[in-house]
């Protein structure tokens, strides 16, 4: 969970950019670049929007700027250092704002900013139950959003089961339920695998990666508009 927003940000960084270095009522230093990662995503039932801010200012300077803008008007404010990240949270009027600030690879700093509406929980845009539960598998996060071609849902799952066990279980489950297999392959070292399936206008992809806890699984569902 600690790396969720970083994962989303870097996975989708090229989606789009906006010219104004402003998010909500927070303005950033001249020369900053604000990139839109996703707007009105449904993350674990909360309506959430995510941006990245790239600036020539240092991590400490960017942290000071956000602290000065957010702390005084906050109903609840917290700040902590986790590894190389500075994490700032503020809650005001049912809005949860989170900033995760790191040193940029080139120079300056990079912040991942998320704003969630805490007053509207358990929002769902997809009712279909697709990815079956499996003992030993824990859903870390669920992201739902609307695409031009239909509805999309992404799940990140940590599994205590082996990569091969998960691969065989999901492949057999979906093919039994009349999903057509496009790709199903495990790499030579059995450290990673991928499954791609479709049924009509709908598609599902599952990627598997071995880690120290078992297997990390990322599932992507796209339900095409009829």
Task: Please outline the major beta sheet.
Answer: 13 strands, antiparallel
Helical content band: 10-25%
Which structural class is indicated by helix and strand composition? alpha+beta
Q: Mean pLDDT, nearest integer? A: 80
Flag low-confidence runs. Answer: 1-20
SSE topology string: HEEEEEHEEEEEEHEEEE
Q: How many beta-strand elements? A: 15
Radius of gyration over all CA atoms, rounded? 20 Å
Q: Hey, roughly how much beta strand do the residues contain?
A: over 45%
Overall morphology = elongated
Number of domains: 2
Number of helices: 3
State the separation between the terminal residues, measured CA to CA: 34 Å
Topology summary:
Blueprint: H1 4-11, E1 16-18, E2 22-23, E3 26-27, E4 33-43, E5 46-55, H2 59-70, E6 76-82, E7 85-92, E8 95-103, E9 109-117, E10 137-147, E11 150-159, H3 163-176, E12 180-186, E13 192-199, E14 202-211, E15 214-224
Antiparallel strand pairs: 1-4, 2-3, 4-5, 4-10, 5-9, 6-7, 7-8, 8-9, 10-11, 11-15, 12-13, 13-14, 14-15
Brief summary of the model shown:
The chain is 15% helix and 52% strand.
Characterize the structure shown.
- The protein has 226 residues and is α+β, with helices and mostly antiparallel strands.
- The chain folds into two domains: 4-117, no CATH class; 137-224, no CATH class.
- The protein has helices at residues 4-11, 59-70, 163-176; strands spanning 16-18, 22-23, 26-27, 33-43, 46-55, 76-82, 85-92, 95-103, 109-117, 137-147, 150-159, 180-186, 192-199, 202-211, 214-224.
- The strands form two sheets. Strands 1, 4, 5, 6, 7, 8, 9, 10, 11, 12, 13, 14 and 15 form a 13-stranded antiparallel β-sheet that branches. It has a two-stranded antiparallel ribbon with strand order 2-3.
- Strand 13 and strand 14 (202-211) form a beta hairpin.
- The radius of gyration is 20 Å and the shape is elongated.
């Amino acid at each position: 969970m600690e790396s969720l927003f970083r994962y989303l940000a870097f996975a989708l960084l090229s989606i789009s950019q906006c010219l104004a270095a402003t998010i909500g009522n927070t303005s950033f230093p001249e020369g900053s670049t604000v990139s839109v990662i996703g707007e009105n995503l449904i993350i674990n039932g909360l309506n959430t929007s995510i941006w990245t801010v790239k600036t020539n200012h240092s991590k400490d300077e960017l942290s000071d700027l956000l602290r000065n803008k957010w702390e005084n008007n906050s109903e609840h404010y917290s700040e902590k250092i986790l590894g190389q990240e500075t994490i700032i949270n503020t809650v005001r009027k049912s809005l949860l704002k989170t900033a995760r600030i790191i040193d940029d690879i080139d120079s300056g700093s990079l912040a991942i900013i998320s704003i969630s509406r805490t007053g509207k929980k358990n929002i769902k845009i997809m009712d279909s139950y697709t990815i079956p539960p499996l003992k030993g598998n824990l859903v870390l996060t669920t992201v739902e959003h609307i695409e031009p071609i239909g509805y999309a849902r992404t799940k990140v799952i940590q599994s205590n089961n082996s990569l091969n066990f998960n691969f065989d279980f999901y492949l057999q489950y979906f093919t039994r339920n009349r999903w057509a297999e496009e790709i199903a392959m495990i790499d030579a070292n059995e450290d990673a695998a991928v499954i791609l399936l479709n049924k009509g206008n709908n598609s599902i992809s599952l990627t598997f990666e071995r880690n120290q806890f078992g297997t990390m699984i990322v599932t992507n569902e796209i339900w095409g508009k009829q």
